[in-house]
Amino acid sequence: MTSPPIPDLDRVSAIIAEVAQAAIMPYFQRLRAQDIREKTGPTDLVTAADEEAERMLTPLLAALVPGSVVVGEEAVSADLRVLDRIHGEEPVWIIDPVDGTINFAAGKPAFAVIVAYVAGGRTLAGWIHDPVTGRTAQGAVGQGAWLDGRRIHFDEPVPLPRMVGALSTRFCSDERRDRLEDRAPGLGGIAYLSSAAQEYLRMLEGSSHFSLYHRLMPWDHAAGVLLLAEAGGWSATDNGVPYSPTVMSGTLINARDRESWTLLKEYLLG
């Protein structure tokens, strides 16, 4: 199967930034009670900004690549069958309109928009945009990863006691949670932000060295993993399977190189 053309990265970044300013930022720190509702529980929220941003991004992105389809987090929440599009032959845009909705709903500036462009189960391009700071990370297979116009190349590995990263204990077994909590003090520090987008941005900017997750929805990770890989990083599940948007179970470990991934896996998970 021939890969579809990769859309212009800067054009997509501009669309995301424009939608964020029009549909997300007017609600930031101005949400009313009726603008927030629970999906599956008090830690799974959706706001008017999530819904409006996804509604605006969907036709704009689909128009860039004729025949492409869209998988948005909120569309999947309304109809799980939408997720099946990832396995189809058409190019797929995967959208997380507001990653870090809990932070956004609380008025905290730790959220971002994530967009990935996928075909044949492979991520071809990805974008992460922080509407508060204006930072944008973008990249494509074979084209590198870029943060605010600067190409990202990871530095030399650091030893485990100096590694700082995001270590989530949500969505895992009690046994795994206990082990992670026992091992965490041996690392350089934990900076869990309740936003995968912000945690990927921290890795790209160099202030973080790893991240670990147990809930693998493609809108959270497809773009970030692609960007890390283009910067020299390594991402795989705990059983060693390289990440792809169709992998939705297991524990995902992201590191700045393959050797660090192996050290983290053995230290944290055994």
Automatic annotation (TrEMBL):
This is Inositol monophosphatase. It comes from the Bacteria. Pfam families: Inositol_P (PF00459). Keywords: Magnesium, Metal-binding. Belongs to the inositol monophosphatase superfamily. The keyword Transport does not apply. It comes from Azospirillum oleiclasticum.
